[in-house]
Design a protein that fits this description.
Blueprint (H helix, E strand, L loop, with lengths): L1 H8 L29 E4 L5 E4 L1 E6 L6 E7 L8 H9 L10 E4 L6 H9 L3 E4 L10 H4 L12 H10 L1 H12 L1 H10 L11 H23 L3
Length: 221
């Protein structure tokens, strides 16, 4: 770019020329000596922590955790396809997955298309949702469905329909309480084990404990 700009203008760009990236670790690079598998990730409320990304797919209605994982990536966009694969491998007796609800951190065109290919209707927020939308916006009539819509356009339209809005509203009241109770009631706020595989095993045990607690609550007195 600098050479092209110099050739086009005849003037040398100001500032130092950028250095090419260096392969391999630098002498100043650091690793976590306690858990090399963990990563520095942004956390809610600002700042960064050395941690993992714990994932859980929760069934609406029962609030039982049906799929779990622990990853090293802070970006949730890479978690939809692995979740779909695990959902597809669940026993048929558990029923068929019809809809997948997820917040905007999971949105991408590729993820919407992956849901469509898996036979699951996606309802993934395409942007941050206001906490208190105006009443007029809540009850406005949905626009006509677009013709020859792409999977993303079809999902965007469905999110504006009464059915889509009602379904997506279940997202906030389904996984959020599960994570909140696991943290505040069960007291699980950090991993005790070190290493990715051990962290995955620990998260499986924690969510299993949640499921047992939840099934006890679901059994009629």
């Amino acid at each position: 770019m600098r050479k092209a700009k110099t050739a086009a203008t005849g003037k040398k760009p100001s500032g130092k020329a950028p250095k090419p990236p260096t392969e391999g670790p630098l002498p100043s690079d650091q690793i976590n000596l306690t858990d090399e598998d963990s990563r520095i990730m942004p956390v809610a409320g600002g700042g960064f922590e050395q941690c993992y990304n714990a994932q859980a797919a929760v069934a609406a209605g029962s609030m039982l955790v049906v799929v779990v994982d622990v990853t090293q990536t802070p970006n949730d966009k890479q978690e939809i396809e692995p979740t779909l694969e695990k959902l597809d491998s669940l026993p048929e007796e558990l029923g068929e997955v019809e809809n997948l609800l997820a917040d905007t951190g999971y949105f991408s065109a590729a993820n919407v298309e992956a849901c469509e290919q898996a036979g699951v209707a996606p309802l993934i927020a395409m942007g941050r949702q206001p906490h208190h939308p105006p009443l007029a916006e809540r009850f406005e009539t949905a626009p006509p469905a677009p013709e020859n819509a792409t999977p993303v356009e079809a999902m965007a339209h469905r999110l504006k329909t009464p059915e889509g809005r009602n379904l997506y509203a279940l997202r906030k009241q389904t996984p959020e309480p599960v994570f909140g109770i696991i943290k505040s009631v069960l007291g699980f706020r950090q991993f005790s084990m070190r290493g990715l595989e051990k962290a995955r095993g620990e998260w499986s045990l924690v969510t299993m404990a949640w499921n047992m607690k939840r099934m006890f609550a679901l059994v009629p007195a």
